[in-house]
Amino acid sequence: MIELKDLSKRYISKNKYGKKLRVDALKQLSLTLVSDTSYALVGESGSGKSTLARILACVERPTSGEIWFDGKNVAAMRSKALRLKRKEFQMVLQNAQSSLDPRLRIYDSIAEPIRCLTQTSRSDERKMILEIAEKVQLPEALLERFPHELSGGQQKRACIARAMSVSPKFIVFDESVTGLDVTLRKQILDLILQLNRDGRLSMFLFITHNIDVALYMADNIFVMKDGSVIEQLENAASYGDFRHDYSRMLIESLPPRSPLHR
Amino acid sequence: MFRYIRKRLTNLIVVLFGVTVLSFLLSNISPVDPAEAYARRILKSPAPQKIEEIRLKMGLDLPLYQQYINWIGRCLRGDLGSSLLTKNPVNYDIAQKLPATMQLVAIALFWILISFIPIGIISAVRKNSLFDHLIKGVAILGISIPSFWLGFLFLFIFAVTFPVFKVIDYGNIKSLILPSLVLAIPTASSFVRLFRATVLSNLNKDYVVYAKARGISSNRIVWGHVLKNSLPPIVTLFFQHLGYMLAGSAVVESVFSLKGIGLHLLNAVTARDLPTINGCVLVIAIIFVLCSILADVINMVLNPRITDKEEGLYE
Amino acid sequence: MNKALLKNKQILIGLALILFVSTIAVFAPLIAPNDPNKIDALNKFLSAKGEYPLGTDQLGRCVFSRLIFGARYSLGIAVPTLLALGTMGLAFGTAAAYIGGRLERVFLIVCDIFMAFPPLIIVLSLVGALGQGLEIILAAVIFSMWVWYAKVIRTYAGIERAKDYILASKIAGCSGLRIVSRHIIPNILPQCIVIVSTGIAALILMVSSFSFLGLGFEAGTPEWGAMLNQARSSFYSHPRLVIYPGLCILLTSAGFNLFGEALRDVISPEEASE
Amino acid sequence: MTELLKVSKLCIGLKPQTFPIVKNVSFALREGTSLAVVGESGSGKTITCKSIMQLLNPKTFQVSGSIRYRKTELLTMDEKGIRALCGSKIAMIVQNPMTAFDPTVKIGAQIVETLMAHQRISKRDAYASGILALQKMNLPRCEQLMDSYPYTLSGGMLQRIIIALSLIHEPDIIIADEATTSLDVKNQNMVLDELEKMKRNGIALLLVTHDFGVAAKLADNVIVMREGKIIERGTVYDIFESPREAYTKELLKASILKRGNCID
To answer: Where are the domains of chain D?
Structure first.
């Protein structure tokens, strides 16, 4: 179980006159994520959803607040302990190509969490990677290639494989299908759902700006605006379940699904 | 904007302070005891107590930071000591030699300015044309050629074989044409390469496509927008090179027997005339820092966005 | 990219020149027909023939042999110095970029201070203070140039550090040291090779101009710049004594420049995008 | 209804081996109608629309076939002729408004420049009509906008300026190349509404998009492209209600996510 308590994040930047600007990316945010459940989070750019993703993956620290992960406050952990804790939570970034080191073979990229976080022999490591590659439908022959030799979909699969290689308890997907073609998007979403059904990926948070994607991925949906969660749904099944004015506005701004609904 | 200028100025003061400290340290690094050197200059064979007396008088027994404060105080009053070689005050010598070198550098900068902008742009616009390949070759030759050798070649071609210029000639602009060209060619060559690359990357930017779609003529796009966007990195370099040329003039002045600050410094180095060396170093470093302010100001006018970007760098 | 390297004519020409000069430097005693330092007062200013393929100089020494031995000085100084500079630059640059924050700011100010002194000036003032000698010149070169390499490499490392895959490695659990050594450094290595290669060319020019100015080498050393300096007085009567060493310097530095600049073209994104 | 734009047998290849990117593409755009070119990335849709305005670098792309605007052939037209047409009779709305303007020049100057490229007009008058054009788009504080640099404005704001700029010469055709892709939901909606308004005012629209929603809202006719070829064409109702090709069906299914149509 993950509990976020009064999480705040404030960025201090300066405008061109040197005046300090405070941006509250997260405002006193509290959330509870239960184990073995999938979640989706919807928000527009600037809503703080990416900040939340980064804080959840502990690549950034909150300005204040606590993150309780299985009874431990991750936000207060020392860097080294935190690094080892990454075995339990992982994140998949938005852009697959740029999140793979161009000079590392796909195999080595996928193996990185295993090598950094666990003491596994090379032969066990190989078994684990082959197994995970099969799970994400990445042919074995591709593992010895470099990222630029793979298609966009294959790169995405490699990123998912990397996050799953240490069998984490929880994975954050930050806008992981944004910018993909629709057919590819569906393939990746279906892959994640498939892994979820197989029990390999029992708990995840899927962050997106697209309500359709959110509805497709999870029953539990959060809507974020200006650093706060403004609506929280359980068992959401359709547009009609959203009540908040902002959520309704987002839905009404969507282009029609068919010319008949113009 | 104002905050930005203030920030740059604070930064500048820190740098200037560092420059004086480094100059001071460079002048103190010598294993030669300055008191003894000074004593030997005024007396034939000074007695040890005489040297100690001089050391006290010159303040050389004080701790290093005290000496630095005294030294900087003298510098601010314009007193850089007097040369061991010419016996003149150092600042007098520098004032005598600097204008000639400045003139040389100014003409060289003029050559650079009128060459790299048009050549760089045309070379980028006509990428992979014959002209572009030619320029590429010439530029590599230009950055690989030793300048003293180029000077001799020029002398041999233009003064001996085809006597357009005199071998030794003083005091007029014509006499500075060959030396300034020698000084300009390596720098101009490296600028052409860099500028061409910057222009090329700008030509691939979205704003060029949209400007075309709005119906703006390609001439206006290239010579207006692309040029303005490609200049900032080179402006910084341009003023940086002004400083280097002051120093690099030593080689050219030696080849063409010009009496400028470079040759003066070189003579001082050979004679181990420390006060002169330190004076020259300080003056050149300060000119260099002043040039970098000028570059900043020009870049600010060219691209107001820089004020935002730089902020992140020092903040 | 490796294929692109081998297809590029400019890179091949550059490499060929570098290899050519290096071979000459290594096998100088085997190639040179005469002792480069043997003075023969009877055979001054001989023109090229038989025993002396390029004639003799103002002291009757074999010009050809001296040119061949000169390669040893140019490469022997420039290559190790540049490797030292490159290593220092890599260490300081990546450290500053990775750690960031206040340390990086201090680093930038130190860079600005050092960069306010043209390298030639630092070298001249150090030589003036400490006296002549090759080791002093080399120390001065390293002292004056290290910031340039460190600052450029910091920029490259900074660009690399901001990329997604570094964040991804962090999420994968890499330690800071591993990120720098396994990810950042391998990815900026091509750019580093470029600056080291063009840096060697610049250093060859710089060292030869020092020895041309009479700094650094003992009189009579068969170094190209020094040879040029000694031939100055007889320039108008025997221009070839000035032409040959200059040509050697030009060819060597052109080799490194051709290689470095072509490599830059291959790896720079502007050229690749079309 | 006259045919405003007629593209026939357009082939585009990548030099030097003329690797084909667009193969034998033909379509026509009639006055007052809208046509959506739908396809995934790499389908050649953006290249096709760029070739209409001769925005492709002739050194990298080999273009053959014919593109006619009314009676004039555009492909063989000289640079001067095509630039006179672009921005006046045929205008364009670009994908990423944040990078569309020269970052070092104020918005006002770039608007004035566009006006002066197409008509004999004094700088002062051009500035005044620039402000007028921005006001028509209901933009706030137009004088101040004219005096600001592009990077100080938001994407939505810049896209509105681009729309205002595209309308400034009363064009016949507007090409919208993924005009909503980089915007947030609210601004996407704003752009779609503006495009709809243009259509009502009789401007022909060429919409290049990967999003079937855009086509559903605005298009009269739809072309589906894949790997440089047109694989299906028809009215928007045909395509949505009774697609013939398997690929079109797959695209439609993938673009409209519904739980339960998950495979297996």
So the answer is: 1-89+172-264, 95-170
Could you tell me where the DSSP H helices lie in chain A?
49-56, 79-85, 106-117, 122-135, 152-164, 182-197, 211-217, 245-253
Q: Are C52 and C46 in contact (CB under 8 A)?
A: yes
Dihedral angle, C-alpha B40, B41, B45, B46, nearest 10 °: -60
Chain A, nearest residue to D262 by Cα: A190
Domain boundaries, chain A: 2-252
User: Taking CA atoms, what residue in B is nearest to C201?
Assistant: B144
How many Cβ atoms are within 10 Å of A104's Cβ, its own excluded? 20
A2-252, superfamily in CATH?
P-loop containing nucleotide triphosphate hydrolases (3.40.50.300)
Question: Whats the size of chain A, residue-wise?
Answer: 262
Helices (H) and strands (E) in chain A, counts: 8, 10
Report helix, strand or coil for C49: strand
Residue C139: CATH number of its domain: 1.10.3720.10
The CATH number given to whatever domain includes residue B128 is: 1.10.3720.10
Answer whether D263 touches A (CB < 8 Å): yes
Provide ipTM, 2 decimals: 0.84
Residue B103, domain extent: 97-314
Question: Which among D249, D259, D264 is the top mutation candidate for probing chain A, defined by the most A β-carbons within 10 Å of its own β-carbon?
Answer: D259
Minimal Cα–Cα distance from A114 to chain B, Å? 36
> Which pLDDT tens digit goes with each residue over C224-270?
988 888 888 877 777 888 888 899 999 999 999 999 988 888 876 54
Asked if the C-beta of B61 comes within 8 angstroms of chain A's C-beta atoms, the answer is no
**CATH code of domain D1-89+172-264:** 3.40.50.300
> How confident is the prediction along chain D (264 residues), in pLDDT tens digits per residue?
688 999 999 999 988 787 889 999 999 999 989 999 999 888 989 999 999 988 888 888 999 999 999 889 999 888 888 988 888 899 999 989 999 999 989 999 999 999 999 989 999 999 999 999 999 888 888 999 999 999 888 888 999 999 999 999 899 999 999 888 888 888 888 899 999 999 999 999 999 998 888 899 999 999 999 999 999 999 999 999 999 999 999 988 888 877 654 433
Looking at the DSSP bridge assignments, the partners of residue A228 are: A225
Picking from D192, D251, D262, the nearest residue to A190 by CB comes out as D262
Residue with tokens 């308890």, as numbered in its chain: A169
Of B15, B156, B204, the CB nearest to C116: B15
Contact A189 D240 (CB under 8 A): no
Antiparallel, parallel or unpaired: β D34-39 and D221-226: parallel
Give residue for tokens 């520098």. B94
Look at residue B177 and tell me if it is in a domain: yes
pTM of this structure: 0.86
**Structural domain span for residue C249:** 2-272
| H, E, C per residue of chain D | CCEEEEEEEEEEEECCCCEEEEEEEEEEEECCCEEEEEECCCCCHHHHHHHHCCCCCCCCEEEEEEEEECCEECCCCCHHHHHHHECCCEEEECCCHHHCCCCCCCHHHHHHHHHHHHCCCCHHHHHHHHHHHHHHCCCCCHHHHHCCCHHHCCHHHHHHHHHHHHHCCCCCEEEEECCCCCCCHHHHHHHHHHHHHHHHCCCEEEEEECCHHHHHHHCCEEEEEECCEEEEEEEHHHHHHCCCCHHHHHHHHHHCCCCCCCCC
User: How many structural domains does chain B have?
Assistant: 1
Q: Is D120 on the interface with A (CB under 8 A)?
A: no
Q: Which of B243-247, B258-262, B301-305 has the highest mean pLDDT?
A: B258-262
Find residues 6-45 of chain A whose CB sits inside 8 Å of chain B.
14-19
Per-window interface: B 5-24 vs A, CB < 8 A: 6-7
